[in-house]
Structure prediction request, 301 residues.
Amino acid sequence: MHFDLADLRLFIHIAESPSLTQGARRAHLSPASASARIKALEGQLDSRLLYRDSRGVELTPAGQKLLQHARLVMRQVDYLKSEFTEYGTDSAGHIRIFANTTAVTEFLPEVLAGFLAQRPGVTVDLQERLSRDIVRGVLDGSTDMGIIAGPVRAEGLQVLHFSTDRLLLAVPVGHPLSGEPTMTLRQTLAYQHIGLHEGSTLLTFLRDQVEKLGGQLSLRIQVSSFEAVCRMIEAGVGIGIIPESAARRHSRTMQLALVELDEPWAVRERSILVRELEALPGSVRALIATLVPGDQVRVER
Prediction:
């Protein structure tokens, strides 16, 4: 069985687009030519890959399976190209990263700034995703690496633990809770919270914990950054649960009181997820080495 790489790339474009026409446009083909190529691919596999109707296209179960394999194949092709680039093994290439809210907003921007400044031939696509989507993305090859916090079930992946992330309760100075040494999540539910935007990993995680308690998280306002959360807290709008790194930094310039959370999930290990570290292109391995000094990495399979 012979696969044309152009057909696999076309199929990925169509699968990631709302319609065959838009997928064909991304592949620089006419809709008729793209349709003919997909039909030929279906004939070769003896399987229907797409459901077509007036609303667009939808993958069949066989299409879902092909998409997973096609992404992995094309990712390896991209790796091969980057390994043989004239710029060297770690000075050029494209890196896609799926990461949680804390990584995207707290420590990755600074790390990536220095990393990219030294490697003008490297580009990065950084996307904030939920933990389950990060794991799925690494597994199916739609991202080179993932960064998460907390326990992870990732069979078939390498998990590189590199630091810890502690969640704290932040309240305004003088708030009734400001003098408490510790608080449970249940105790905080009597107060209105300041939350991050919908789709953020931290908000989703906290809602899951509240649901396990049978309670309800009362959100007074949702904002887009930890700095905005802290400014709202300082103004007395509500209280909030945020990472210690953000809490400590903003408490130096804002009137905030920090209270430890008496919860088993409050201390979470940060981890990088990859399919196989040694199989990654040089640019991705170099970024991981920047994030995680070799003597600090614990690899779990």
User: Anything to note?
Assistant: Residues 61-83 form the longest helix (23 residues). The longest strand covers residues 158-172. The radius of gyration is 23 Å.
